[in-house]
Amino acid sequence: MEKNIVLETNFPSLKLFKQGKVREVYDLGQYYLIVSSDRLSAYDVILNEGIPNKGAVLTKISEFWFDYTKGIVENHVVTTNVDEYPEECKEYAETLRGRSMLVKKAELIPIECIVRGYITGSGLKDYQRTGKVCGIELPEGLIESEKLPEPIFTPSTKADIGDHDENITAGQAIEIVGSEIYEKIKTSTMEVYKKASEYALTKGIILADTKMEFGIVDGKVILIDELLTPDSSRFWPLADYEKGKSQASYDKQYVRDYLTSINFNKKPPAPALPAEVISNTTKKYEEALFVLTGKKID
């Protein structure tokens, strides 16, 4: 599967700016180039095997959502058309095609902006322990996968590779970014989630939760990174939804569930993924793309 993974060494003449868990960012002078690999991260651990077509799926889904929500908040996308990229990218055009974005250079706001419409994952664990999520008091008696009375904004720290993001309160987030920026990213996150979740329901998908990232360009807060993908969101089939249990999903929760079943300790080194898990994960990602956007991977 490794041949499916796009690594920074594929582009030796480009200037690597940053390597993330699943993406590389290159500095092209006026712009950044973001390349989505087929790597998969689960519990903040990069798995050994790639998920074929994953990078292309993430790029197409992000492109769709950035366009769909641009009326709410500006984003960093310049173009995904490789033929419009700077000259230094031309020799890598076919590798970059379909899995990269040319974007504005933004100063990163160091907060993961998470919105939860349903109680699950780390939010459920916090709630079971304290009755709260990120300091937000919730009604008593909520159960796994239950819809919340209203979506909640639950920021977290943005961890480096190998570290874990940590849920934080609104007060802690304000200490990091200031009250003005906090209110802007909170409002934008909630409005994007509302519009996207309503759209997803028309396609038979519950958008249970998602995380977004923001940056600053010319003093303006804009959406950056990826948006509403199976890597950054939980997508549940509406037809199969039933509160009180873990849900079927179109996202990497399938891989998390497998890792939990083999008692993975959530620390490197990652265990090998069986071929069936890899194949099924590709199908789930591609199905999410098709159901949401009507598009397929070429």
Which consecutive residue ranges, at least 5 long each, have pLDDT under 50?
A: 1-9
What's the total helix number?
Answer: 7
Amino- and carboxy-terminal Cα gap: 19 Å
Q: What share of the residues does DSSP label as strand, in percent?
A: 15-25%
Known CATH architecture of the largest domain: 2-Layer Sandwich
Q: How many domain modules?
A: 2
Number of strands: 16
> Mind describing the biggest β-sheet?
7 strands, antiparallel
Structural class determined from secondary elements = alpha+beta
Helix content: 25-40%
Radius of gyration: 19 Å
Shape: globular
Order of helices and strands: EEEEEHEHEEEHEEEEHHEEEHH
In CATH terms, the superfamily of the largest domain is ATP-grasp fold, B domain
CATH hierarchy, class of the largest domain = Alpha Beta
- The overall pLDDT average reads 93
CATH fold-level label of the largest domain: D-amino Acid Aminotransferase, Chain A, domain 1
